[in-house]
Amino acid sequence: MQLTGKFGPYGGCFVSELLIPALTELEAAWLDARDDDAFRAELSHLLSQWAGRPTPLYASPALSADIGCRVFLKREDLLHGGAHKTNNTIAQALLAKRMGRTRLIAETGAGQHGVATAMAGALLGLQVKVFMGAKDVARQQPNVRRMELFGAEVVSVEAGSRSLKDAINETLRYWTETVADSFYVFGTVAGPHPYPSIVRDFQRIIGEETRTQVLAQAGRLPTAIMACVGGGSNAMGIFADFVDTPDVLLIGVEPAGHGLDTDAHGATLTKGRPGCVHGSISYLLQDEAGQVLEAHSISAGLDYPGVGPEHAWLKDQGRATYESATDAEALSAFAWLCRAEGILPALESSHAIAAARASRGRWQADDVLVVNLSGRGDKDLAHAMAALDADTLPPKETGASPSQRASRSPS
Ligand SMILES: *Cc1c(COP(=O)(O)O)cnc(C)c1O
Q1: pLDDT tens profile 353-402
Q2: Which of 60, 76, 85, 209 is catalytic?
Q3: Which one, 30, 231, 293, 378, has least CB within 10 Å?
Q4: Does pTM surpass 0.85?
């Protein structure tokens, strides 16, 4: 079977000619690997023994009481590394090794994908070079240290706005010079073909496990699945196995920053228009002249101006819908889940929790809602506490009567 690089009018492969052979080779290697029992067995072994799969599907009493239906959390926060990113990096690193590459290269924004790549490189004995905007290097020192501890080299990118999109451009440039021995570990379901398909396939285990677990625990498929969307990999991962099951609603949640009426947010599918960035066509935050806008969100992991092309297509077809949550709503959900369930969610994942809580009233008591808890929030502590303490951003309750246990002030 051939991977298709197109999702309706979206996707494709718009890169320097110098990279076409590498991307063609990558596609062939993946098609070969995914049909190879030995590759699948090794990946499966590492995912279970090293990374801790399967992750639990947890029936949350507090969210169920709060929302008024049966709510489950898919616990990617419990995966080694603290987020779903490990599923992708370990698999791409294994593919790199199979292709005879000796060096992994990666872009990173807040540093989470860089750390996940560095971990995989350490495990498999591959050299790792991570490109990071200079601005991010300065504000994400703990992640820079983590990458260095795992043996990676962190390259500070001074070009442009010195943030994620510049780091991606720099990684692509470095890759053109070193294609013979470098493997580009792309961090989400965006970028040139075949990355959107490869990353989706490496993340789809989230949805496959969810299907089995929810059938065993709830005796039925979910009414709806909700997941936060930055580039879109954790959402595509949990959606993929359900796309052909039309009864299951798929809901992506984008960051609205301070609110959708402001310029600075990351609600690409809600507020963007089709355009081309980083090698493929998708919705994109851009100004009148087509300049790529910088995304802003309280969660650095959602600060990506683009979104995966498959999401753009799912949206246009009406197969998935996309909502948004503001910084304040995400912070409120973050604090609420800590108190209500003893679970510290990532700020990214808190957007999905916020949208789930705001959806109360939409469901019947026997409906089943699955929310993807994409990662844990330890990395966000300092940032979240500062925002929660600031008078300008009070943690406000959205909507009606939360359970008594959860209604205590989170401050
Ligand atoms: C990186 C990250 C995201 C955003 O990336 P996607 O590709 O949209 O999944 C979401 N949640 C967590 C915890 C992350 O680390």
Answers
A1: 999 999 999 999 999 999 999 999 999 998 898 888 874 555 555 444 44
A2: 85
A3: 378
A4: yes
